[in-house]
Amino acid sequence: MSTESFAKEENKAAHQHSVYARSVELYNEGLSYAKHERFNEALSLLTEAVKLAPDYIKAHNLLGKIYMQLGQTEKARESWLRTLKLDPLNLMAMECLEASEPKSFLGGARDLVLFLPLLLVLIGGVAIYWKLIKPELSDLNKNLNQLESKLDNISISSPALSDQTLIRKKTEDLLIPNQKTSPNLGRDNEKTSQLIAKTDDTLSTNLQISNVSNQLPTKSTTPPKVTNRSDLEQLYSQTIKGLMLAGKYQLALPNLIMLTESGIEHRYLVGNSYFWLGVCYRNLDQAVEAMRAFQYVTQSNSFKYEEARAQIRTLQQDQRRGFH
């Protein structure tokens, strides 16, 4: 490389650095204005910042929020879509896009119509409780109190729950005969002592078994599916970055299935999960399942619509080659 060309490259790098530094200054000034709710001033600064640095993700995200504050929803969504083109896994842009999704009037009316029967059922259930169930429960409570008062006079017979000293005393009262009425007092006392010793051993053993059984760990159940919104977003990011992009398709498969079956109302997250599920199936040579996943993406008009269509065309071409 000649000295002249080297100098040009150096000047170009210095210019790019100064441009990026200026865009950062504009972003910080715009952020300060936004915090003080001076959105028009912030808008002009952030617009200039993204013009100087079109790949400045933070500026695009903040610009979208400013547009939303000014009531310009479409421009806000365009800003977040630019962010996702630069960083498809940007969670802030995903959240903002999902929150700004327009809700139709018919959709709200439909939800109200679906909610009314449930409300009527709840009101009816409360009325039935107060008129029928509550008096019955009151009578049952009285009967239980009477039963408890009767049980207070009955000693508990289970060795695991009784007091060991009390049982031993009752055993002695029953088994040791009265000195005035027993002519064979020495022989009877010896047999009685042996029987009491056996009773003590039995009580001790039963108590040990009871304590051990209470300390035994229960079998662990299968962990529930992840349903929390933030946990699902974190699972999506970890699955794509840590498994899919590393080619670990077999490990990524159950996570993607969980994401697609989560039932969360998050069109971007669910649509992208179906797309990556199709990629996963395709790399695992499961063409039918891959086709179904990609078709879901196109039918739901998800963010990866074009990429899913390209994958479907590729799968169709592979099938045609297989027939020839």
Task: Please give the structural blueprint.
Elements (H helix, E strand, L loop, with lengths): L2 H33 L3 H14 L4 H13 L3 H14 L4 H9 L5 H47 L12 H12 L9 H31 L13 H16 L4 H12 L6 H17 L3 H13 L5 H19 L1
Question: Could you describe the 3D structure shown?
Answer:
This protein is mainly α. Among the domains are: 16-99, Tetratricopeptide repeat domain (Serine Threonine Protein Phosphatase 5, Tetratricopeptide repeat); 164-206, no CATH class; 229-323, Tetratricopeptide repeat domain (Serine Threonine Protein Phosphatase 5, Tetratricopeptide repeat, Alpha Horseshoe), CATH 1.25.40. 77% of the residues lie in helices and 0% in strands. The chain contains 13 helices and no strands. The protein has helices spanning 3-35, 39-52, 57-69, 73-86, 91-99, 105-151, 164-175, 185-215, 229-244, 249-260, 267-283, 287-299, 305-323. α2 runs antiparallel to α3, α3 (57-69) runs antiparallel to α4 (73-86) and α11 runs antiparallel to α12 (287-299). It starts with a helix and ends with a helix. 20% of the residues are buried. Residues 155-162, 174-183 and 212-223 have low confidence and may be disordered.
Descriptive labels:
Serine Threonine Protein Phosphatase 5, Tetratricopeptide repeat; 0% strand; 324 residues; mainly alpha
Give me the CATH superfamily of the domain at 229-323: Tetratricopeptide repeat domain
Give the amount of beta strand, in percent: under 5%
Regarding CATH, which class of the domain at 229-323? Mainly Alpha
CATH architecture of the domain at 229-323: Alpha Horseshoe
